[in-house]
Amino acid sequence: MAEESGEEYLFKIVLIGDSAVGKSNLLSRFARDEFDHNSKATIGVEFQTQVLEVDGKEVKAQVWDTAGQERFRAVTSAYYRGAVGALIVYDITRRTTFDSVKRWLDELNTHCDTAVTRMLVGNKRDLESIREVRTEEGTELAEEEGMFFIETSALDSTNVSKAFEIVIRDIYEKVS
Ligand code: GDP
Ligand code: MG
To answer: Which residue, 60, 112, 122, 171, shows the most beta carbons closer than 10 Å to its own?
Structure first.
């Protein structure tokens, strides 16, 4: 949803990508500046809302996290409904998660129109020594698919706010 009421904007943004790539930790880092070392499949929260200021306007980013349904490839259409932004996350240390990006894009495209702002996110860049996906591969795929691209670390906070802020600003520029 991209709703404007007075000076308020509310943007729904979804997190997608394979299991254990760090989606929930990216959200907890962004929304609460927290990191969880123990992987929990479910955090039990559908979404978290973060308020930001863009060009002096209040923008609410409602960021949706899966409750682990991606394990069963059963992320529902309700999850995608009304989304105006998506972060497609992979883990730079596991190539299979990068290979899955195309499938996630297909799923996104079947549920949302192409105007959705999309950001490809290569997470866990703190684990450089066991990297399996080169930065250039991410750059290339993002260019091919017309997405933004960034590498992040939810562990050490690198680029986490930036990833969300780029998406939010792009959405804002489309609707304002
Ligand atoms: P999700 O299944 O995609 O939501 O992934 P989680 O957020 O649950 O994270 C899966 C595992 O990866 C957990 O053990 C996290 O502690 C770990 N993790 C998440 N992000 C990072 C990161 O940026 N760096 C490192 N080293 N580990 C991470
Ligand atoms: Mg999760």
So the answer is: 122
Q: What is the DSSP letter of 135?
A: H
Residues 28-61 have pLDDT tens digits of: 999 988 898 876 655 555 899 999 999 999 999 9
**Is there an atom of ligand 1 within 6 Å of 20 CB?**
yes
CA of 5 to the centre of ligand 2 (A): 31
Residue 3 to residue 58: CA distance in whole angstroms: 12
pTM: 0.94
Distance CA(139)–CA(134), nearest Å, equals 9
Cα separation, 82 vs 94, in Å, equals: 30
Any ligand 1 atom below 6 A from CB of 19: yes
Distance, CA of 90 to CA of 26 (rounded, Å) = 12
Checking phi first, is residue 44 left (phi over 0); if not, alpha (psi -120 to 50) or beta?
Answer: left
Closest ligand (CA of 123): 1
Q: Which of 73-77, 95-99, 121-125, 154-158 has the lowest mean pLDDT?
A: 73-77
User: Which atom of ligand 1 is least distant from the CA of 156?
Assistant: 23
